[in-house]
Predict the structure.
Amino acid sequence: MEAQISTIDLGVIVFYFLIVLGLGFWVSRKTKTSEDLFLGGRTFGWGVIGLSLFASNISSSTIIGLTGAAYSSGIVTSVYEWISGIPLILAALIFVPLYLNSKITTIPEFLGKRFDRRSQVFFSVVTILTSILVETAGGLYAGAIVLKTFFPGLIIWQTTLALALFAGVYTAFGGLKAVVYTDSLQAIVLIVGSLILTYILFEKIDFSWTQVLESAPQGHFSIYRPLGDSTLPWPGLFLGVPLLGFWYWSTNQYIVQRVLGAKDLKNARWGVLLGGFLKLIPLFIIVVPGAMAMSIYTGIDNPDMVYPTMVTRALPVGLVGLVLAGLISAIMSSVDSTLNSSSTLVVMDFIRPNNPQLSAQQIVRYGQITTFILMLLAALWAPMIQYFDGIWMYLQQMYTIFVPPVVVLFLVGVFDKKGNGFGAFMTLLWGTLLGILLFGLQQLGFWSLHFTITAGVVVGVSALIFVVCSRMKAPPAQNVIEQYTYHKELIHQDNETSGWVQNYLLWAGLLLACILVLFIVLI
C-alpha cells in the first residue's frame, strides 16, 4: 500500500518548512554570545519551556510506534509517555533548583562540581556519543523510514542527510533559542493536527467508545503484563521505567538544557510541570486513535502502516499536509535538540576548559562548527541503523548499558552527603562494565530478564558500589555538601504561596494525581 499525497498537502508542508526556517533565522540575528547560543540568554518563560520539552521528546517513531502498538498489541507502551510526569515532578522539587543555583551550562558540569572532573568527563563523553549515535542518528533514520512510507521514492541516506541539514542550519546559527521557539511551534502543530485526526476517527464510530472496547482483544487496554511479556512486564513498569524516565527527564542534557535557559526558578518549575501535563496528551491523541482504528480499518498486518492509513484515509486534502507537517515537526524537534545539546557539551565541557582565553565570539563560532560536524556524523551513521534488529531495540540496548550508574550519581549522590569523587568514578566504571556484561550475557542466552528489569538490577548494584566506595575516602568539603546536595529549603525556594494558581506544589500534586488515576483506570 502506498499513501497518496496531493499537491495541496505538499504545499502545506513546504509552507510549514519555510515558517520554521524563517523563525530560526530571525532568532539567529540575536544570537551573539555563548549564553545566547547554548542557553538562549536565560530568557525562556514557562510556556516555551513546556512546549519545547514536549516537542523534543515526541519523535516520528513515537507517533508511528504508539499508534501501531495500540492497534496490534495494546496500550502498554504508552506508559513511557504519561509516566514521565513523575521524574518531572521530582525535577521541579529538587533538581531544577539545584541546577539553577549552581549556574551550570551542562549537566555533566554539575557532576564536576558535586564530585570531580573525572565524573564530568565520563558522563559528558557518554552523553555526546549516545546523543549523536543513538538519539540524533536514530531520529534521522526513523524519520526517513516514516517519510518513505508516505513518499516511496525517497532514498534513505539522502533523506537523512536532508533532514540533518535542515535542522542543523537553524540550530547552528540560532542556538537553543531557535531550537526552543521552533519546538514550541512544532508542538502546537503536532497537537492540533493530532486532535483533528482523533476527532474525525471518533466521529467515524459515532462517538462510541464501547465499539472500540468490543473490538479489542482481552487485556488490550491493560498496562499490567505478566513477567514473561516481551513488551513491558509488570516489574519493569515499577522498577525500570521510572528509573529510565528519571535519567531522561532530569539528567539528559538535551532535555534539561531548555530548563537551564529559564529566566528564573519559577518559570523553570512551571515549564517542567507543563511538560508533565503535556505528556499525558499522547495517550489520548496518539494511542486512542490507534485503538479506534481497530474497528474502522481492519486487516492491517503491518502496525507501522496504521498511522499512514489513518492519515490518508480519514483526513481531507489540506489536513493531510497539516498532520504530516506535525509528523515532520516531531522529527525536527528531536534532531535539533540533540544537535544543540551535543555541541554545548563539546564546547563547554572540553574546548572552553582547555582554552580559557577564548572570547564570546570565538566560543559561538566553535559551537556553530561543532554543530555542523556532529550533524554530518549523525547523518552518515543513521543509514547504518538498518543493519540492527529494529530501531527500538537499538535504542534500548544502548540505554541499558549507560543509564543506571548515571541515575545513581544523581538520585543517590544528591542525597548521600558522604558521596565523593572516588565513589562516583567507581560507580560509573563498574556500573557501566556490569551493564556491558549483562548485555553480552543476554546476547548469548544466559540472561533473560527484560531490559527494564535489568536496568533496575544494575541501578541497585551501582548504588551499593557508590555507597561502599564513598566510605573508603574522606567525605566532600562542607561547601560542596551545602551547594550541591539536597536540603529541604530547595523545595520551597522561590515558591509563590499567596495564591493557589502560583503555588507549583499544588500543580505538582494535581499532575501526580492524574498519573495515579491512569494507573488505576488502565488495570
About this structure: The domain at 7-233+259-390+504-521 is CATH 1.20.1730.10 (Sodium/glucose cotransporter). The chain is about 75% helix and 0% strand.
